[in-house]
Amino acid sequence: MLLISYIYRFILLINRNFRCWRFIILAMMIYFIINLYILLKQTRLNSKSIFGNKYLRQQSLQDKKKNENIQNIRKRSSSSLCICENNNKKTLQSHSPISPEARLRYSFIDIDDLDVDINYLDEEYRPSQQLNILPPSPDSHPYTRILNVKGDTSVIIYNRLPQCYEHTMGLFLQDISYLHSYTYISSQIYVPFSYNKSALVSIARSLNKHKFKQLIYERHIYFFDYYALQFPNHPVWINLVRDPMYRIAAEYKHSREICRKTNRCFVQQDAINETLDECVIKRSPKECISSDNGIARMLPFFCGLKYSIECQEENNWALKQAKQNIDFFYTVVGIAEEFYKFLYVLEKLLPQYFKLARILFMNQHDPKILADKRDINVRLPNKNTTKILMPFLKYEYDLYNYIKKRFLDQYNMLLELDN
Fold this sequence. Notes:
There is one protein chain. Helices cover about 55% and strands about 5% of the residues. The protein is an alpha/beta fold. It has a single domain (about 90-130, about 145-419), classed as P-loop containing nucleotide triphosphate hydrolases (Rossmann fold). A five-stranded parallel sheet has the order 2-3-1-4-5. β2, α7 and β3 form a beta-alpha-beta unit. The radius of gyration is 33 Å and the shape is extended. Keywords: Glycoprotein, Golgi apparatus, Membrane, Signal-anchor, Transferase, Transmembrane, Transmembrane helix. It is found in: Golgi apparatus membrane. One of its GO terms (cellular component) is Golgi membrane. InterPro entries: Heparan_SO4_2-O-STrfase, P-loop_NTPase.
């Protein structure tokens, strides 16, 4: 209004010629353009603030829902624990007591935990005659079935490799089984890893006739082929591996701790107090990372028991057989260094067992640590020892790198499908 009064006075003072009117009209046009620009700018700012407030409200609602979900998980976990325990009590009372003779005869089976009818185990073994198994030929590309769930999902066997995040994985499986109300059995039978055919038949039978709807069975045992034993239902196999040098360093230390603290000794008595660095200096490197010094090798865990003698060797044939078994029979073999990605793949491929796995894991662990301290506090041997041992770990690293590539391919494919 002040500007208009000035313009009016100016009009009264000046001569009313045509040139003067042109300047007046131009000034009025500039004034209106400036006002219009300011008005539009203010309306944009107002609209942004409105949408920003809406977005913030939505985010707060989402955060609130997430927190509620986590609380629900905790509640369901505790309640499902009670359900699982009650169910186990009921099923364990469903059979007649097992005699000491039968316990001794089947000492390599978790009879009580699996709740298997002893009469079924004592039956004569009659191989299935109706098997028509056509696994992919070795010439076909190994990744054609990379996202397939391989086996009957009522049973998952996790043939745990020693010192591959076993504490972290054990606590996680216990928690996730409570959440989804299925059975998780961590076998207390630690050795041996290898069994003959009749023992494998009994183990396969007990896992085929357990009394639970869903089961994850964890055990230190070499892979065995159900189809080779003429069983129609092959379970789902999963596993987790670790960089061989880290795993061997962890297992070398752990085997000595067990020997000192308990009566279970898998180590030569004169080597109990030796470090891996000292062992390499005093003994041969191959002996230091052998079973005599408490070290389990990775290759036989995947090469398996179909060719038990050949798979104990470290050569190209055993390596090829291990890779073939992984491609044909394992739904997922993760790597400990990418544990969070491992949980993601399990969620996507086996949701009935691992739904909400990442949320549960992150909620129950310190984000700065993630894995259990017992799994990550590994002291590696010195550079000289590492250099000496590396040639003896040639096949271990070949298989580890093969598993790593396969696993990351799985992860990237699932991530792409998810997006």
